[in-house]
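Justification of computing resources. Each target in the renewal requires a structure prediction run like the one illustrated here; the chain below, 1008 residues long, is used simply to show the kind of job we budget for.
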Amino acid sequence: MPLEAHSITVKQWEKSSTGISPLRTAWQVCVPEQNGAIEPTILGGKTPARLKGMTSVIYDKQAMPEHVEFLIKRIKAFHRLKKTPNNQKKVALLYWNHPPGKQNIGPSYMNCFESMATILSALKKEGYNININAISKEEVKKRIMLGGRNIGSWAPGELEQLISDKGVVQIPLAEYSKWFEKLPFGFQKSVTNQWGNVEESDIMIKNSNIIIPLVNLGNIILLPQPSRGFGEDPEKLYHDPKIYPHHQYIAFYLWLKKKFNVDAIISLGKHGTHEWLPGKQIGLSRNCPPEILIQDIPNIYPYIVDNIGEGIQAKRRGRGIIIDHLIPPLKKGGVYMEYRELTAVIDSYHNAQVTNFELAREKLKTAHKLIIKLGIDKDLSLKELNDEAIEEVEHYILELQEKLIPYGNHTFGLSPTGEELFELTNAICEKSPEIDTKEMTHRLNTCGPNEIASLIKALNGEYIAAAEGNDPVRNPKAVPTGHNFYGFNIDKVPSKEAFVMGKKMAKKMIDEYRQKHDTYPDKLGIILWSTELQRNEGASIAAIFHLLGVTPVWDKKDQVIDLKVVPGALLRRPRIDVLIQMSGLFRDSYSKLIELLDKAVLMAGSIKDVENFIAINNNKIELALLEKGYSKNDACQYSKLRIFGPMPGAYVHALQELIPNSGVWEDEKEIADVFIHHGSFAYGKTIWGKPLKSAYKNNLKAVKITMHTRSSNLYYMLDNDDMFAFLGGLSLAVKSQANTYPDTIVANMQDGKTVTLENLPKSIGKALRSRYLNPKWIKGMQKEEYSGAKAMDEFVENLWGFQVTTPFAVDKTHWEEIHDVYVKDKYNLDMKKFFDKHNPWALQSMTARMLEADRKEYWQAPEEMKKSLAKTYVTSVIEKGVACCEHTCNNPMLQQYVTNIISLFGLMSPRELEQFKMTIAKATGKTQGENEAENLKMRENLTKTIEEIKKDEDIKAKTEGKAMEGFELVDEKQQETKITASGSSWVIMVIIGVILMLLFAGYRKKSR
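Resulting structure tokens:
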């Protein structure tokens, strides 16, 4: 996909953080993607040639020779895939093990080991050279657990054990240094500034060798993509919003090309880290880390169909060829155990009300006890259990019963069968009754074969057809899978349908807040994700517009071309202010929308026909900025900014890495400071990524509601760390500035037709009760073996994230229920046997996390429960070895806490306790005392960093007339400039022609 820098010159493009402009992304990138185009590559742009007269400039076209050469190399690489016999092709199959830990291998909602076995079997049938006779998931798992894992720098003993297997690759530092010296100087400097020279690094380095774990199967190798190393250096985690790859990460990609001579990479599942490295947003330069590391290696990327937003990032920044795969089967959660008992008690209470008042009162007491025991009163914020509350509980249980839940994971290349096929078909057709069930069953049946066929085609350098993606329940056109999905056209955001939904959402938030507080909310904090926008076509954008009192203007093609103000007489309420917190991916994908939102804020803030909270808050922020020392002009301009996100080039949210690493931080005040430090870069039409912490903090002070949407039928509150990092993080940041938590809201839009608002406690409670505590969900995950246990551990980790950021939303009954279901096995699901056989480190991680919640006093575990957790954890470490994730091996204070519990209650013999200590010491290479001393030193070293990140931006430089950090956007307008037809422009045209011919040839081959 050839790109050109249009309205800005090549030199302006080189300095920009965005790459190609927001205006050009729609037609230069989005439209070609709908036709299956891949690998957007900037090839040239304009350069001033000479002045014409005294006023206008004549522009020439200028090719970028390095970029042209790079694209040609990549085209040749795909051509080699066409010509090279399969038995000679070398392929690296990458999987995810980030952060490091034995319990944490595999992608989102995919059975990792079974998918690998399915792919390897298919490749062997195609003639690929694979030196393994019995390809099974068990054999794949065995080999990966032995030699194919990432190891944190906190566990040198584990690394020694990995090396002793002799299957790993060892790259001498001297050899790597020669490779590194040939990389672009700017990139080298950025890496060494953050990580030092390779000799100073300790991430996967031993005895002057860089260690690359892998499973060697001949011409096919299995490797974990390197960990990004966020947890290796707490100071970086606190301070650096943009982190470059460390030396082992760089060596990994260079070795693939220089030593293994890889022909292609298969990046297995959502999602890796390569596409999230620093660099331009779209239209990367040759100095951007993703481009430097990918070299000319084709990157084939199986990706879950329900995550278009992040998949697009893999396409645009990671040069990924997407092959979308199906979601897991979905079933209705139903009512189980205690909830069935509670329903029966409530029914008998209603019956007794008619016949026997005393009996009814006793039944109500029984219901009351059950509701309290389960914590449902906390979910629903019930003040007293009267008839109205009982009715609310009944509705709640009905919601749980009807909720769709995933039943296990998907295996790439396999279609659902039997009851699972029937249930998924029904889930889709129930929401889209116009679709014939037989047709949908057929389409689902073809998913597995399509996925494998497309993978084989991609490895043959053939064209992969484009198709719509999204949650198949919301968009049945996403089935069958096996395609190169594309995203919703940004020119149509918000769609007219989404605008209707957004208005409903905004109105409900206002009305419910007024009902609760008897006043209007003057400001809302709204989170914007690219992934959510792809699912709901911009309903959150529409909600923001309606809160502000503006409306989009659509043309005849349903494209948004402008905004207009809704008159106060029609609005009939105040204009509500907004703080917009966006992800780095949203910034990259929807720069044009950022400009539109900025325009909406400015328009709304200037209107005086009704009470205007935007204008009121502008004045407050301006006064605060003047007090900070800003000039009148700057204070006025910055007071009107409402869109904030990470630094240009930064993506990973610090809270996703920091909160799990709980041995590093002391309290949630630090967490809030880190969130603000990383998320307070301002964006708008003329400002792009300025660090404006003072303006951001003053915005936070007025926020009364924080809101995030949830539009997927698959992904729920505790399925990934993004929800707590954004919604929890923003709410905690508000609390840090306003001294009170905002109303924290989740807007559910799974069916695409209605909007329901839930407060955060209810939303988390529903997630736990409908899925993670539900025997049906557990049985579905048990059949996935290792991957299912991993999913169980993940939901506990993500509950911990909410516990830290929004403690009001996580009740003690949540932790108690998790203990009873997973440790005590109250549903008799053979949990211990399941974990011991398939993934004992998952249970080890879960129990360690619950003990950590108790240690840090977020939860006061009952004494018997505390003893049960400690004994389960220690026994697992002794019998199965330590998981060595961040909160086990990298948390000496937890180890000491557990030791104290064991000793205090005499739960194990002195010999067993010593075995536990020895196991940890062997993994970490240090005694308990040495680990504690090192932890104390780490905290002392962090003191200066913690104080530094609390500081606002330096305004002295600005008042002295020097430019602050951040990229000033060029106002892109249609210019009447003449462009000469030079030889360089012909080069670009020829390249474009060649690419189009290759695409056409691929299409014709497909059609035959």
